[in-house]
Request: fold
Amino acid sequence: MLVALGLAAAACAAASGESSAPARVEARSADLMAVGLVHDDGMTIRLSRLIDNAPVRDAAVTVTLRGVTHPTTAEADGSFTLQTKDLAIPGPAAVEFQVVQAAARETLKGTLQVAAGAGSGDDRNSARQLWWWVLNFAVCIGFLWLYSRRRKANPG
Reply:
């Protein structure tokens, strides 16, 4: 019975671990396109040329989010990353990507829509449901254990 309880708890934990699609922002200029995917308090930015969809690697990118300018870090795969707690604030946010490449400077504008309570409300309800099932199984196991003890004490 304890094995069944453990399996049920593991199945519920796995189901609650599923995450929804990440928030996404897309911004374009005449020559470039930036796509940002948000995971928790981080954003991965892919910057490419519109003409041939080639990644832009030799650029400096800064991101203005909610009125604050944040620097990005260039990664080995050609993407750029940004870490800020402002990405977790729910609601729409104007995003500006400033791209400096050699002597050229471009600004790409987009809107990021972060779902209200992204990741927290569903996880809390899933955890509450998990513990409800664990409690139900524990009560049933306790009842069966007491019932079997009583039968052994009074065989007739």
